Amino acid sequence: MYDQTQGLDGYISIEVPPTIADNTESTIAEARRYYKAIDRPNVMIKIPGTAMGLPAVEQVIADGINVNVTLLFSVQSYIDTAWAYIRGLEHRVAEGKDISHIASVASFFLSRIDSKIDDVIEARLKEGKDNPGLVERLKAIEGKVAIANAKIAYQEYLKIIQSDRWKALSAKGAKVQRLLWASTGTKNPAYSDVMYVDELIGPDTVNTLPPSTIAACADHCDVENRVATGVSEARQVIASLSDPDIYIDLDRVMAELLEDGIVKFVQPFESLLSSLQDKVQRLATV
Predict the structure, then answer these.
(1) 46 has catalytic annotation
(2) pTM (predicted TM-score)
(3) Would you say residue 6 lies in a domain?
(4) Is residue 4 assigned to a domain?
(5) CA 127 to CA 216: how far, in whole Å?
(6) Annotated catalytic residue: which of 36, 46, 175, 264?
């Protein structure tokens, strides 16, 4: 796939240890080590989009290494990620090096946002059950925030690729950093099982689907370019979170999701290493 699409698709991601998510220098060192050891043009090194991770993204891109910036939740975190990618390319151009082979994606997590915010909405519904107007407004945003957030992020992407700095890089062969939709399996059975697919199809995006969502999409996805539609409605959904009666601190929710996400990466990573170590020790005695 990588060869057939001339480096557009066909990438495999491998993440640096999540235990070093807040250590810039260690992340850079591990990314370089992985890239050299794997030695394949279609590998993407996955780096969390934390405050300490983004300087690593910038340096690794400048090194000519493909990067998957993961665990993005807020629109601002995406914007910061996009500019880290651009700065990395600019560093490389300043050194007279080729940038046409470098690829990157910004991985935006979706269903986790709705799950967390829906829990808050559920609590608000219980508190305001005697207020029909509030109940109606709360129900209007249930299961809507993640897609609204993603659509606003895509609008930011469109702005960035119209900037003079990006156009200068594009003229030298730079590939756009595509938005990648992750965590796309619908957690709430009351929602469409393909809602994170149907609503976010569009140019320069990637959607990573779990097997159950692939099967559901093959059966009843309505494939249409929608990622840039309904933007006004998306902004209204996000704005409604600041309503004094509703008040859900989206910035705090996103920060908590990032922290929780790193923990969720650490536990299986350490479990995997422990399992491998046990097998190494058992095999060493054979």
Answers:
(1) yes
(2) 0.92
(3) no
(4) no
(5) 36
(6) 46
